[in-house]
Specification:
By secondary structure, this protein is of the alpha/beta class. The chain contains 16 helices and 25 strands. It is globular, with a radius of gyration of 29 Å.
Length: 571
């Protein structure tokens, strides 16, 4: 596959691995205290790395609107170095974003023609060329640009998926537009409502679909030359039975199938998005001027309707949305109004001056942008609409979010663990290190020691058990063993245990952080509770500060030991 080459390319490919992990520190909470939406101020490369242990493989949709590199993002570099600097900036961020995506997730990146083609090749390399979904063309202007040789009227939105087939199954259709609806008429006052006629022929010759059809007038018709009936005869007869075949006003024309507007569940999204459907730059500027005033308006916002279209296609209520170039906060605002969970990252001071007040207005029920279209706000009449939230019947609850900043390094330059790190934080890092996925035992990275905020899927709060790592193998059918044509077999690789922060709460050495015979006995008893009769066949992987047992005793107990902090990856 062709790849890009630029100055510092090799260093750019390893820079994400060199970024240290940091803690996330809560600055303030807004709205519902239990809300897990996060607004993070800080460098987005460091912030993405900080999120990785907690959200790896959890994000359903990523939308980013990165700098377009129009000779302003890196003004201290000449043109050639500016381009290389932009590529080196984008690459490690795309690498981390890919790790955060769910298997059925997608990433959408807005860009113009200045770097769009280079970004396409770069994303081919990071996400895989076969995972490219589409290049959406967004008509961002409705008036002509007379200052250029060719007027710039569109931006590109590149869409990639972790797994295109899963994304295709999961993505939502879009509502028919007015042009589509206008094609449906009801000239005969059909009680089923407006309809249009769909031709019942297809190009090419298929012998089993060349059967004769007798019209109501008695005329026998065949497909036109070089064509065939679009369905087999039994299917055609079912159309006749259901009275959804139309033979023209005189009942002697080639048949067509009646398609009713009421039966249209939605349209497959296409790649041309005119401004009438998703908004334009003037619309977005007016939206932010209402929010911030003319003097504080953001330079290049995106209209809320554009984000609404993307999130409608790519997500459902409750899914997690991430924007690591949050800008004025549009992605988070739209996600919130549509009932999605969200994480927004912005490095600049406008994380506090723009994003924070904007999102506060959202949870207060502001009525700009898409609010009325999705039923968002305290005056919404229908609690079933996508955005309306009601804590109790008739009581407005706009949700909430937490404002975060990047805190101390989790590991210092020598790999030592920061004293502020609690058990669940280290557990998340260790679980990601060993399994390549987010730890299911912690849902709150800002307060990871609070078991009440950590509804474990596998982990048992208050114990050293983090969970069991499984691998899934697909196999072909085997009639003797009763496998289905494609079966997934789950095999336990190991159960992971962490001795840290005195999790055993006793008087053993270092409060149980050292693997002694007594601690091992306690772990084996817990292991038996977790796995029952299968416990002996599932290996134990134990992390602790020291081990007082010999290799033979560990082997006998089916235990592998790793030392904290030396066997915990600092990067």
């Amino acid at each position: 596959m062709p790849t890009l080459d630029w100055l510092n390319r090799a260093a750019a490919f390893t820079s994400a691995d060199q970024v240290p992990y940091r803690l996330l520190e809560q600055v303030s909470a807004h709205g519902t205290p239990s809300a897990d939406n996060l607004l993070i101020q800080g460098d987005n490369l460091e912030a993405l790395k900080a999120l990785l242990p907690f959200y790896r493989g959890q994000v359903k949709c990523i939308f980013i609107d990165p700098p377009y590199n129009t000779r302003s993002a890196f003004e201290h570099y000449d043109d050639n170095l500016e381009h290389a600097q932009w590529l080196s900036m984008m690459l490690p961020r795309l690498q981390l974003l890919r790790k955060l995506l769910r298997d059925d997730g997608s990433i959408w990146v807005t860009i113009d023609d200045n770097e769009g083609h280079y970004l396409k090749v770069l994303m081919d390399e990071v996400f895989g060329r076969g995972n490219f979904v589409a290049n959406v063309v967004w008509q961002k202007r409705y008036s002509r640009d007379n200052n250029s040789a060719l007027g710039d009227v569109h931006d590109n939105v590149l869409c990639y998926a972790r797994n295109p087939e899963l994304f295709k199954q999961a993505r939502n259709r879009v509502e028919p537009d007015e042009k589509t609806r206008s094609a449906y008429k009801n000239p005969n006052n059909d009680p089923k409502g407006p309809w249009r006629l769909v031709p019942m022929t297809g190009a090419g010759l298929r012998p089993n679909q060349q059967y004769p059809i007798t019209t109501p007038s008695g005329k026998v018709v065949y497909p036109s030359a070089g064509r065939h009936w679009a369905v087999l005869e039994p299917k055609y007869l079912s159309y006749v039975q259901s009275r959804t075949v139309f033979f023209g006003k005189n009942g002697d024309s080639q048949p067509g199938v009646l398609r009713y507007l009421s039966e249209v569940e939605g349209l497959v999204p296409w790649t041309w998005w005119p401004h009438e459907e998703v908004g334009h730059t003037d619309e977005s500027k007016k939206e932010v001027m209402v929010l911030f005033g003319g003097d504080n308006a953001f330079d290049t916002p995106k209209p809320e309707r554009l984000l609404q279209r993307i999130l409608h296609i790519a997500t459902n209520q409750g899914d997690l949305v991430l924007d690591s170039f949050l800008g004025s906060g549009t992605t988070a605002a739209v996600a919130h109004k549509m009932g999605r969970r969200w994480i927004g990252i912005e490095m600049g001071e406008h994380a506090a001056t723009h994003c924070l007040p904007r999102l506060q207005k959202v949870i207060d029920g502001e009525q700009g942008g898409i609010s009325k279209a999705v039923g968002w706000g305290p005056n919404a009449n229908d609690a079933s609409t996508t955005g309306a939230l009601f804590a109790e019947a008739g009581t407005w609850n706009g949700g909430g979010f937490r404002f975060m900043r990047l805190g101390a390094l989790v590991f210092d330059a020598h790999g030592r663990i920061h004293p502020d790190v609690r058990f669940a934080t280290l557990a998340a890092f260790i679980w990601q290190q060993e399994t390549g996925s987010a730890w299911a035992g912690n849902a709150n990275p800002t307060d990871p020691g609070d078991a009440a905020n950590a509804p474990a899927k596998q982990a048992r709060p208050g114990t050293p058990y983090l969970g069991t790592h499984y691998i899934f193998n697909s196999c072909s059918s085997n009639e003797n063993k009763g496998y289905s044509p494609i079966s997934s077999i789950k095999t336990a690789q190991c159960s992971i245990y962490l001795l840290f922060n005195g999790i055993l709460k006793d008087k053993r050495p270092a409060s149980g952080n050292v693997l002694t015979q007594a601690v091992l006995d306690a772990l084996l008893a817990l292991h038996a509770q977790v796995h029952g009769a299968a416990a002996a066949s599932v290996p134990l992987l134990v992390f602790g500060e020291a081990c007082r047992l010999g290799a033979q005793r560990l082997t006998l107990a089916n235990v592998s030991f790793k030392h904290i902090p030396y066997d915990v990856k600092a990067r």
